[in-house]
């Protein structure tokens, strides 16, 4: 028999977590409905090690998908962190919904969040993200300017840096 709190210090813990999460995700994909993509497939979940994004076209579909995820995860002992779990509504219209209630959970609505380094906002535009990346590229370029002007580096090295 496995004692759950001992798994925290076990080297296999991340692998076991990923296997458990994978089985939950597969069950959700079978039961839930996502958004239609160009090839007529549904996009329901975007998952990256311990970050999951659920995608749905309507509030009811999102509530249903979340409920399935909660129940399937509960069967094998996985829980959602209530304080870290948020939702965002991508729409051009204004909505007054501040919370999404699913089973015993109440998820807070946010206007934007960072996922895998990219800022996602409720208006589904990327203007701010593009500006931030351009500014970062400019800062990097101008920090290398003394090297580009240096006579100690060969042209080949300068081209490689550029």
Automatic annotation (TrEMBL):
<dbReference type="InterPro" id="IPR043502">
    <property type="entry name" value="DNA/RNA_pol_sf"/>
</dbReference>
<feature type="domain" description="Reverse transcriptase">
    <location>
        <begin position="1"/>
        <end position="120"/>
    </location>
</feature>
<keyword id="KW-0548">Nucleotidyltransferase</keyword>
<dbReference type="InterPro" id="IPR043128">
    <property type="entry name" value="Rev_trsase/Diguanyl_cyclase"/>
</dbReference>
<dbReference type="GO" id="GO:0003964">
    <property type="term" value="F:RNA-directed DNA polymerase activity"/>
</dbReference>
<keyword id="KW-0695">RNA-directed DNA polymerase</keyword>
<keyword id="KW-0808">Transferase</keyword>
<protein>
    <submittedName>
        <fullName>Reverse transcriptase domain</fullName>
    </submittedName>
</protein>
<dbReference type="Pfam" id="PF00078">
    <property type="entry name" value="RVT_1"/>
</dbReference>
<dbReference type="InterPro" id="IPR000477">
    <property type="entry name" value="RT_dom"/>
</dbReference>
